[in-house]
Amino acid sequence: MIGYVTLGSNDVEKAAAFYDELLAEIGAGRLMENDRFIAWGTSPTAPMLCIIRPFDEQPATVGNGVMVSLYMDSTDKVDSLHKKALALGSQDEGAPGPRGDGEFYGGYFRDMDGNKLCAFHFIQAD
């Protein structure tokens, strides 16, 4: 159902370097780009993650309560992506581990623009 999600950036070059390395960890690469945005994904028909310089030319800001979640097919991949994000300079927003009833496993971090992301896996799907 979701085609793509955009995250505002005030430094697209810096954000691009971060997301090139981070998303390569899960097999995603650049699918589209121009002078204002870059989109990463595994296929143009699968959900994509984009960074964008805001159209109104105002500074990009973080939405309180807004988060992008990236599905991983194992808890090991959640751990790996969270670790990679921190190695790339992300702010830790919650170490990987089970949440709630224990069926949801997630790790949380913020990119250099303050956007919150989560790598997650449903343990019950194993």
Give a written overview of the molecule.
The structure is a single chain. The chain is of the alpha/beta class and 126 residues long. The chain contains 2 helices and 8 strands, in the order βαββββαβββ. The chain has helices spanning 12-24, 75-87; strands at residues 4-8, 29-33, 37-41, 48-52, 67-71, 91-99, 104-110, 116-122. A 4-stranded mixed sheet has the order 1-4-3-2, with helices on one face. It is globular, with a radius of gyration of 14 Å. The two termini are 23 Å apart.
Report the CATH architecture.
Answer: Roll
- Total domain modules: 1
Give the N-to-C terminal Cα separation.
23 Å
Characterize the largest beta sheet: strand count, sense, and whether it forms a barrel: 4 strands, mixed
CATH class: Alpha Beta
User: What is the element string, with H for helices and E for strands?
Assistant: EHEEEEHEEE
CATH topology type: 2,3-Dihydroxybiphenyl 1,2-Dioxygenase, domain 1
β-strand amount: 35-45%
What percentage of residues falls in helices of 4 or more residues? 10-25%
* Shape label: globular
Number of strands: 8
Question: What's the gist of this structure?
Answer:
The chain contains two helices and eight strands, in the order E-H-E-E-E-E-H-E-E-E. With 126 residues, it is α/β, with parallel strands linked by helices.
Task: Describe the secondary-structure layout.
Blueprint: E1 4-8, H1 12-24, E2 29-33, E3 37-41, E4 48-52, E5 67-71, H2 75-87, E6 91-99, E7 104-110, E8 116-122
